[in-house]
């Protein structure tokens, strides 16, 4: 995955925005003001940190050497993914979407509805 493809994948998600709160080199992709992806797009090797369900995070790390605990992040909830070509593109895209979904799931229902997030529609009108 190229830096441009990574950026495009993150920004393709409803309401996603690229910010630079840490420095000009580190892209932080947010939805609803909360981070779901973090990458130094010009870094070599290219990597991205993504939010992940803790149990899945452990499994992914065990199965893929290119996936490690989140660098400078809470390793229980974040993975850093080395984009060196060793992982299938579909897996990387799924991890980006999962990270986004975890963040959107934590947002208020009204915000989820504004984002037209499928998860809120599947829960119905009772919010649960």
UniProtKB/TrEMBL annotation:
It comes from the Bacteria. InterPro entries: YjbR, YjbR-like_sf, YjbR/MT2646/Rv2570-like. It holds the Pfam family YjbR. Transmembrane segments: none annotated. Keywords: DNA-binding. Gene3D superfamilies: 3.90.1150.30. One of its GO terms (molecular function) is DNA binding. PANTHER family: CYTOPLASMIC PROTEIN, CYTOPLASMIC PROTEIN-RELATED. This is MmcQ/YjbR family DNA-binding protein.
């Amino acid at each position: 995955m190229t830096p441009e493809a990574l950026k495009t994948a993150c920004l393709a998600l409803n309401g996603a925005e690229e910010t630079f709160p840490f420095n000009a080199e580190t892209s932080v992709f947010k939805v609803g003001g909360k981070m779901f992806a973090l990458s130094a797009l010009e870094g070599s090797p290219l990597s991205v940190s993504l939010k992940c369900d803790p149990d899945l995070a452990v499994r992914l790390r065990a199965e893929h050497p290119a996936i490690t605990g989140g660098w400078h992040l809470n390793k229980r909830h974040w993975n850093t993914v080395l984009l060196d070509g060793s992982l299938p593109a579909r897996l990387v895209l799924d991890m980006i979407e999962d990270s986004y979904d975890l963040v959107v799931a934590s947002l208020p229902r009204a915000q989820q509805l504004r984002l037209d997030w499928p998860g809120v529609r599947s829960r119905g009108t009772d919010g649960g």
